[in-house]
Structure formats: structure tokens, C-alpha cells
Amino acid sequence: MARTKRRTNPVFDAGELRLIGGEARAERALEDADSVDLLVWNIFSTLDTHRDRDWLAYRLEAFGGAGMGAPVRLSLWTGAEREPLLHPAPGYVAHVRERAQAAGGDDATVAAFAAPVEVPVRLESPDVLALVDVTVDTVPVGRGGRERVVELVDAGLEQARRLGKRLAVATVYQSATAASTQLSSRINDLRDPTALAAALPHRRVVPPVTLREVSWRQLLRLWSAEIGYLDVGGQPVKAFLEHCRARGLLA
After folding, report:
1. 184 Cβ contact partners less than 8 Å away, ≥ 6 residues apart
2. CA distance 8 to 94
3. Which pTM does this prediction carry?
4. Which of 8, 28, 53, 108 has its CA 20 to 30 A from that of 243?
5. Alpha-helix runs per DSSP H in the chain
6. For the residues of 125-143, what is the DSSP string, one character each?
7. Taking a C-beta distance cutoff of 8 angstroms, is the pair 86, 155 a contact?
8. What secondary structure, in 3-state letters, does 203-246 show?
9. Which residues are CB-contacts of 75 (< 8 A; sequence separation ≥ 6)?
10. pLDDT digits over 63-110, tens only?
11. Rounded to the nearest 10 degrees, what angle do helices 237-246 and 36-47 cross at?
């Protein structure tokens, strides 16, 4: 009986993905048809090969706002295990500890809230630090069940302050889903400085934060328009785009 070859997802440079993202993440990208890691890797790792760095910075304004400028450093899956680590704000951890102690808890109760936070995509330009979260059709949840957008804003403000940069937080989601409607509504609410301050009661002052939302369809159109400037030679680009169409992420 002939042995059939196992069908896997169209992952670009799987060996490099294993080095950067780890074996478990690479296997999910190869095997899971709904893997968001596959999307992050294929799109953002190749955007980082763009030959025109000034134009790339302009295109990345979709995530970081008009302050993005060249050069832009792009890193994947940093914050929790890969440097630079993204720690929750000390004021937030103290706030959680105080509430936990009042309820009879101890430091072990606070551990989940105090652990470093991973961000799928980190963009760092001379003036802006942009943290990009990703999902398909679910609303992401942060450490200890915290609201994910607020978690990234709070932790990101700490790093942005140390770096002397402005903070932007963006979310990529699948449009026309219940999750996208909920996320879009909440992000729009948090653009109001009063609402953002209310979500961060442990902070006396909340600096301005750029909040962006991008659909996978928008991102894939952007990426497709730049293919000619990216190092994608020998990669299964056509198969990847077909994969995205089959998942409803691209028209």
C-alpha cells in the first residue's frame, strides 16, 4: 500500500520559525488550519524583509499611527520568554495584591497577574513603540483573566516610558464576527482618555495612547501589495493566499 504524504499548512521557512518561535509553535503553524501563529509568521516575518524601509514604516502606520518612521525594528512573540520582557505595571501588581490580601489571598494568588506578558508583534520606531495583538474570531484575554487590550496598554506604557517613546496598541481580528464587533466597540471606547483612565485606576496619569484595529483582510491586502518588495522567493505564497481565502480571511 502506497504511503501518502502528510498535508501541512503553507508555512514560510519552517526552520527559521522553529528557531524564533519554538518547536511547539512551529508545529501548530504547520498542523492547525486555524493557527494564528501561521498568519503572524508568514506576514510579519516577510514584511521585515522589505527592501524599502522608509515605505515599510509608512505602511506600518496602520498599527502605530502617523508617528511611525524608519528604521522600524520588528520582533515576534517577545515579552514573556523572549526579550525584551514586558512586565505588568508595578502599580497594577500592587493594586491586585492589595485586593487579594483583603480577600484573604497571598502572593501565590497574585502570581498569574504579575507574570510577564507576551505580545505577538512588537514594532519599534524612533518615536513609537507599537504592540500588536492578534486573534481570529475570539476576544483575547490577558493574564489572570485581565482585559487584553488594557493589559497591553498598561504594560506597554512602562516600556514606552523607559524608551522615551509614544505607545500604540493595535489588534488584528477577523471582520464580521461577534468578537470583532465586541473588540471594535471596546477599542473605540478606550480611545476616550476618560474611559482609558477608568480602566487603569492604579495610574495617576495616563499618557496618550494610539489604539488601532486592523482586519486580517486589510492586512493581507497590504501584504499582497508589497510582495514584490519582500524576500519570499521559493516560499508557497500562492498556497498561503489560498489558505487565507479558505479560512474566510481574504476575499
Report:
1. 213
2. 46
3. 0.94
4. 53
5. 14-21, 23-31, 36-47, 53-59, 61-64, 90-102, 107-114, 148-163, 178-190, 193-199, 216-225, 237-246
6. -SSEEEEEEE-SSS--B-G
7. yes
8. CCCCCCEEEEEEEHHHHHHHHHHCHHHCCCCCCCHHHHHHHHHH
9. 82, 121, 122, 124
10. 999 999 999 999 999 999 999 999 999 999 988 888 777 776 666 778
11. 140
CB atoms within 10 A of CB 217: 16
Contact 53, 70 (CB under 8 A): yes
123 has which bridge partners?
Answer: 74, 130
Q: Please report where in the chains the cell 476616550 appears, as a residue.
A: 192
pLDDT at 6: 65
Q: How far is CA 178 from CA 82, 167, 219, in A?
A: 32, 27, 19
Spatial neighbors of 71 by CB under 8 A, at least 6 apart, are 53, 57, 125, 126
